[in-house]
Amino acid sequence: MSITAVPMKPIRRSVLMYVWIGVALALVAAAALAMQAPADPVTSFLAKNRHAKGVVETPSGLQYKVLSPGQGDAKPTDADVALVNYEGKLLDGTTFDKSQQPTPMPVTGVVPGFSEALKLMTKGSKYQFWIKPSLGYGDKASGPIPAHSVLVFTVDLLDFIPEATLRQMQMQQQMQMQQQQQQGGAPGSAPPAGAAPGAVPPGQ
């Protein structure tokens, strides 16, 4: 069995040039389409927000803005409990959490971005934070917070003390309450039922 070779005419250089031009144009078109593809909204927001007036971005990617400076140079550490007023929102403006009164927060007992932000603040300061998903809840939803959410917090740092000191204060308070309960039945420890404080019992 024999194979008959079909002679092919030589390709002109001009034709090759047009082929390569076509390939180059196809690559350019593909790159243009890639650039026009919708970008991730979280990435787009953070890229734009880092250039907003007053916004600072840390090496971890946490973004913050000082709304009101505080007092002194001391800042919370991992060993502290911070007393704060706060409000947390999503990028669409939805409030997912808000303190009703000053709230104690262990610096290490919150998401990484919030912990890092607290350690930037001084007593009496007010900051706004933008916590990217990897420093917040990541790809997991948490209550009203969807997965892959940027958390926007406004925080007032009222005070902070070492967690060990707070625990000691709590223990002392519990001991005092126990002592008061034990002394509750002792003679003269409380006025008779229905008597006004400081009233003299009848017949005296």
UniProtKB/TrEMBL annotation:
Keywords from the named record: Isomerase, Rotamase
PANTHER family given in the database record: 39 KDA FK506-BINDING NUCLEAR PROTEIN, FKBP-TYPE PEPTIDYL-PROLYL CIS-TRANS ISOMERASE FKPA
UniProt name for this protein: Peptidyl-prolyl cis-trans isomerase
Domain of life from the UniProt record: Bacteria
Organism taxonomic ancestry: Bacteria, Pseudomonadati, Pseudomonadota, Alphaproteobacteria, Sphingomonadales
Keyword Cell inner membrane (UniProt): no
Chain ranges of the PPIase FKBP-type domain: 79-161
Reaction(s) catalysed by this chain's protein: [protein]-peptidylproline (omega=180) = [protein]-peptidylproline (omega=0)
Single GO BP term: protein folding
Stretches with biased composition (Low complexity): 171-184
Pfam family, one: FKBP_C
Family: Belongs to the FKBP-type PPIase family.
PROSITE patterns: FKBP_PPIASE
InterPro entries assigned to the protein according to its UniProt record, in alphabetical order: PPIase_dom_sf, PPIase_FKBP_dom, PPIase_FKBP_N
EC number(s) on file: 5.2.1.8
Molecular function as annotated in GO: peptidyl-prolyl cis-trans isomerase activity
Annotated signal peptide: none
Region (Disordered): 171-204
